[in-house]
Amino acid sequence: MFHIMVVEDDQALNKLICRVLIKNNYEVVPAFDGEEALSLLDQNYIDLIITDLMMPKVDGYDLTKELRESGYQLPILVVTAKDTFPDKLKGFKLGIDDYMVKPIDVNELLLRVEALLRRARIIYEKKLEFPHVCLDYINLTVTVDGKSQILPQKEFQLLYKLLSFPNQTFTRQQLMDELWGYDSETDIRTVDVHVNRLRDRFREVPYFQILTVRGLGYKGMVEK
Amino acid sequence: MFHIMVVEDDQALNKLICRVLIKNNYEVVPAFDGEEALSLLDQNYIDLIITDLMMPKVDGYDLTKELRESGYQLPILVVTAKDTFPDKLKGFKLGIDDYMVKPIDVNELLLRVEALLRRARIIYEKKLEFPHVCLDYINLTVTVDGKSQILPQKEFQLLYKLLSFPNQTFTRQQLMDELWGYDSETDIRTVDVHVNRLRDRFREVPYFQILTVRGLGYKGMVEK
DNA sequence: GAGAATTATGAACGTTATATGAACGGCTGA
DNA sequence: TCAGCCGTTCATATAACGTTCATAATTCTC
Q1: B111 and A88: CB-CB below 8 Å?
Q2: Which of A36, A217, B60, B112 has the highest local Cβ count within 10 Å?
């Protein structure tokens, strides 16, 4: 779901934080100093960073500075033993979002991570992520290899439904019930038309497709 | 400048916080319980709330709940003596943004206020900068490739909002709420008219645009 | 392989959402 | 006080969408 980078040179603490995050359904990318963090950031999509301040090579301050100066706006949460006001001042002035003093309560960490994601409007993006493909429910947007397009609502909802449960066959009636409402009087074949349009739209995209299950309905398939 | 409401039943602390904020150029609206806070919120434009949890009549939890349920998205910073995890959990789940435990360092409070305003894009910098394009909130000025023009207020605010969160779709209602006020009775279609005028105005500019998300609202796009 | 059943596809249509132009009235500053 | 700007409303034009329908293509059954 959300991708969080944990930058912390203390191996044990790094591992602890990562484990807690993973347990709470975050995707985690660990790094052990600021330099590694910067290079990993280029290669991974990251929603939020949790970072220590004191670290070898590039420290937390410089990491923050680098990121903000190169335009990264992602939330940065500092976890550190430094408890003096000047440290906090420096951190906040560089553009961090939150500051926790060790020893930290990992449960509070989770709460603060969530609050930051919410505030940065990252968390409300109901998303479906696959390799090469991402569906954004809020924006009705399908992104394939970085290229986004907005779909009409019905088409989007249909695709979203089918890809939410890949390989599971849905009858037309099921789809009608869920997307059109249980009492809809719309012709059941309307589903076909939308499926057809989706196929047209993504004819060239190899990463997913909608299969017909004759006699039953349709099913979504991802990344053969 | 920015308008901050301080909700705290301890008169001395309330006064202290207000004084510090005023000294740092914030406009302050004090309230001494949640009920008063709610009624003052209707009458004043507020950017951020600092609130205690334990208060007579409506407490901090209920205040937060009320606000979030009626659509207010402004940052809420809790200042409280309650230091247990369940308290924090409850607070964050209700939608607070930050949590400080008494006794607090007012200087750190200032830093956190600043961080929240920045993150909520309540224009701490009062500027939005992209390649080729810069929006100056103070002067209502949009600069494209060095050429500046002043926009009418509503048009400017709308553009500013949309470009503050590029690629995020805003419903007309959200935009109305934030730019016109939660209780505004202005026709929702007024948003369309302003969008239309902005498009007219920047028709020739390739660096940003406002896209329609049919059935939902609008979103800003920067530098395709 | 023929006919029946099912699905695919393209075109057309009505509906709804949005875009656009024009006009009105209030406010502001000269 | 008046002109001009601004925000708003309204009426109408336009475009997008969802649906239906007719027909073609495919698959299944016997």
Answers
A1: yes
A2: B60
With contacts defined as CB-CB under 8 Å, which chain A residues touch B211? 150
Q: Between the CA of A178 and the C1' of D25, what is the distance in angstroms?
A: 29
Residues 2-41 of A with CB under 8 A from B: none
Q: What does the DSSP assignment read for A127-157?
A: EEEETTEEEETTTTEEEETTEEEE--HHHHH
Q: How confident is the model at residue A73 (pLDDT cuts 50, 70, 90)?
A: confident
* Cα A184-A190-A192 angle, rounded to 5 deg: 135
Q: Which residue is associated with the tokens 């309307």?
A: A190
Are A124 and A118 spatial neighbours (Cβ–Cβ below 8 Å)? yes
Which residues are CB-contacts of B161 (< 8 A; sequence separation ≥ 6)?
B170, B175, B178, B179
> Nearest CB to A139: which of B114, B120, B169?
B169
Q: Do A153 and B215 touch (CB under 8 A)?
A: yes
Considering all CA atoms of chain A, what is the largest pairwise distance in Å, rounded to the nearest integer?
Answer: 70
| Tokens representing residue B127 in the block | 């500027």
Q: What protein residues sit with their CB closer than 7 Å to strand D?
A: A 150, 152-155, 180, 184-187, 189-190, 193-194, 214; B 150, 152-155, 180, 184-187, 189-190, 193-194, 214-215
Q: Give, for all 224 residues of chain B, the pLDDT tens digit.
A: 788 999 999 999 999 999 999 999 999 999 999 999 999 987 788 889 999 999 999 999 999 999 998 878 899 999 999 999 999 999 999 999 999 999 999 999 999 999 999 898 766 567 888 889 999 988 899 999 999 999 999 999 999 999 988 888 999 998 998 899 877 889 999 999 999 999 999 999 999 999 999 999 999 998 75
pTM for the full predicted model:
0.78
**Which helix (H) or strand (E) is B211 found in, with range?**
strand B208-213
CA of A208 to C1' of C3 (A): 35
- CATH classification (class only), A127-222: mainly alpha
Domain ranges of chain A: 3-125, 127-222
Q: What is the pLDDT of residues B1-44, one digit of tens each?
A: 788 999 999 999 999 999 999 999 999 999 999 999 999 987 78
**CATH number of the structural domain A3-125:** 3.40.50.2300
Please determine whether the domains at B3-125 and B127-222 fall in the same fold group of CATH: no
Rounded distance in angstroms from the CA atom of residue B161 to the C1' atom of nucleotide C17: 23
Q: State the CB neighbour count (10 A cutoff) for residue B11.
A: 10
Q: Half-sphere exposure (CA, 13 Å, Cβ side) for B51? A: 29
Protein footprint on strand D: which nucleotides are under 7 Å from a CB? 5-11, 16-22, 27-28
